Amino acid sequence: MSGRNADRATLALLLAILLFTTAASTRFGAIDFSAHDMVTAVSHTLTGASDLTLNQRIFMQLRLPRAILCLFVGACLGIGGTLMQALFRNPIVEPGMVGTSSGAAFGAAMFYVFGALLNISLGAWALPIAACLGGVISTYLVFALAQTKNEGRSSIILLLLTGLAINALFMSGIGYLSYIARDPQARSIIYWNLGTMSGASWNSVFVVGSATAAGTAAALFCAKSLNALMIGEEEAVALGVNVARLKWVVLTINVLMVAVATAFTGIISFVGLIVPHILRMMRGPNNRFLITGSALLGGALLSAADLIARMCVRPAELPIGIVTSIVGVPVFLGLLRRREYLF
Amino acid sequence: MLSASNLVFRAGGRALVDNVSATFHPGLLHLIMGPNGAGKSTLVKLLARMLRPHDGRVAYGGIDAERWSDRQLAKQRAVLSQAIEVAFPIPVHELIMMGRYPHFRGRPGRSDERICEQVMQYFEVSAFADRNYSSLSGGERQRVNFARVLAQIWEPLPGSARYLFLDEPLTFLDIRHQIDFMKKVREFASQPDVVAVGVVHDLNLAAKFANHMLLLHEGRVLVEGDKAEVLTAEHLRTAFDIRPEFLTNAATGETHLTFD
Fold it and tell me: How far apart are the C-alpha atoms of B29 and B210, rounded to whole Å?
């Protein structure tokens, strides 16, 4: 089929874009690294040599993990968006809509306000763990409340509206926490709510990378069933899809990917929304293509956004969530006005 | 052979399907009729295992329907419903390929591609194979859907019958398309290994195409049999609360129903 070759060509193109943005985002920033510094830093680290210059150490410990983390977080958000849009059969859904992001943000805010107070010390892991817990709890809450007796199948509209309500609840919780927080904590909450890649470390690369790999593989496994869901829940059942199980599996993948990514970077909006849109416009709605494509395009977009966030006010930097919103909102509004999308 | 024994399905404190037993044979087109709320759609969904009965059982070829996995069942049983709503713009050929989903893992095989070509030719939809489904007219859409549903059970299966269920498939079709459609259903259902069960509203259309009829009333089978047995003035008065008149077409000898 020629469609398959065109899919491959598109994926190759996306990979090329991703390599380009990653290269640019690795090289430029508050400090521009020379190609020589970059190569030397990597090769010396790999061979175990410890004779790195200051610049080379900055590259290895800050810039490189940050660039790689962008790829994984972008992939998580992109795939999360693809999965949620496919599951809810609605092109304007994003991963945050089942409560995952607001719950994660609430968990982070709780940590900022009460962590120091209770003297909880888990080192660098406390914040991501708090955020992840928040994401899982809020998502579980949405599902528990949206469960109906209707043959064990929870209706998707009910889920979406419950997600809306739970999101509002957690956002007001975050509002309250930043209201009672003292100044440095309040600033941390605000900063985290806007998203930032500045906390990147090899640790976070490892954790988010593992979630990305596992999530992508599991998502690809669900691709065909999600395609069947495109024509309706009943039709999918008639095609042999266990819709109730599919929902749980897909939501678990989404929570895993989005909560883990959000845990390390804060709320980064619109990536999960626009990535699947762009891909669908390019090559149609086949989820197998969309999942692989969103991993590549999500990574490329996020590393481009991070580069912009670092370049436009350098040597300071903008929260990346602001960049993705500034770019994402007009794209989203434009998409809404396109005729092909039927709501 | 498909058999239902003592099926009960309740909703809202009321039995929508109330102790229905029936047998459906291969090679025949069975049509279920009845007034609104008689439980036609529910019965078809129970038979197709889209719904689980609160009591009673459905058996495919003598084997309890509950013993088939979702996927095994989907290889032999296809369901065409009123109209589908597609969430995203999708080309017609991709939609039709969905009918083959139960038959392959990963990517479609050569036989899946071939079957899609065949059903597209059979339903004369090849000309718009690459068009967006949402851009088609109601009649074209239903043809595409029927092609998809038949792609699911297009080829005979070793050791198993094929089961086709139709849940008010004519709703969005004009009269010419209704007749075209029923001819294709009848042709498909005449194969010796195909069990076909459908719900049709139009009594005349049902009379013209059914091999076997079931008239439902308040969740129960009022009467079943051929059209002479089922479509009598008394049964129609009980089920629909109407007074029918029977006219015979002198040229064809066919009987038609009219109403006061």
Answer: 5
- In order of A73, A122, A272, A322, the CA distances from A329 in angstroms are 20, 37, 12, 10
CATH of domain B2-222: 3.40.50.300
Distance between CA B66 and CA B70 in Å, rounded?
Answer: 9
Cβ-Cβ contacts under 8 Å, A280 against chain B: 88-89
- Per DSSP, A114 falls in state I
CB A66 within 8 A of CB A306: yes
pLDDT tens-digit profile, chain B (260 residues): 899 999 999 988 889 999 999 999 999 999 999 998 889 999 999 999 999 999 999 999 889 999 999 999 999 999 998 778 888 889 999 999 999 999 998 889 999 999 999 999 999 999 999 999 989 988 889 899 999 999 999 999 988 899 999 998 887 788 888 898 999 999 999 999 999 999 988 888 898 899 999 999 999 999 999 888 888 888 888 888 888 888 888 888 777 888 77
Query: Do the chains contact at A240 and B113, CB–CB below 8 Å?
Result: no
Global pTM reads: 0.87
A151–B152 CB contact, under 8 Å: no
The answer to whether residue A238 neighbours chain B at the CB level (below 8 Å) is yes
Q: How high is the ipTM of this complex?
A: 0.89
Domain A2-336: which topology? ABC transporter involved in vitamin B12 uptake, BtuC (1.10.3470)
Is the minimum CB–CB distance between A284 and chain B shorter than 8 Å? yes
